[in-house]
Specification:
The protein is an alpha+beta fold and 108 residues long. The protein has a single domain, classed as Beta-grasp domain (Ubiquitin-like (UB roll), Roll). It is built from 2 helices and 5 strands. The longest helix has 7 residues. The chain is globular. Its cofactor is [2Fe-2S] cluster.
């Protein structure tokens, strides 16, 4: 469909799953991954307060919106944050994100 993008999720074993994500429903990447039954706690409900939806962006980081101060501050509390880590709750699905590759931060 024209309002869908492909988001790839890399599993701990290195395999990747391609998911077709809608961009016309106002979903965040966190909401979409939860709907696809990925193990994301999202205990704060998407308010950038808990970092339980942290993902590592493996490809397509340049396609994402700039990190907010709140997101940066929350990521800064994680002991094992990577330069390419983002909070999935802060990433609204949009057409520019087509081809994005992410890995759940704590899926090891």
């Amino acid at each position: 469909m024209e309002n869908n993008i492909t988001v790839h999720v890399q599993h701990p074993d290195g395999s990747r799953v391609a998911l077709e994500a809608p961009t016309d429903m106002g979903l965040s990447l966190m909401e979409y991954l939860k709907a696809c039954e990925y193990d994301i706690l999202a205990t704060c409900g998407g308010m950038a307060l808990c970092a339980t939806c942290c993902v590592d962006v493996l490809e397509g980081e340049d396609k994402l919106n700039e990190m907010s101060d709140d997101e940066y501050a929350m990521l800064d509390t994680l002991p094992d944050v990577l330069p390419n880590s983002r909070l999935a709750c802060q990433l609204q699905l949009n057409p520019a994100m087509d081809g994005l590759v992410v890995k759940l931060h704590h899926a090891e």
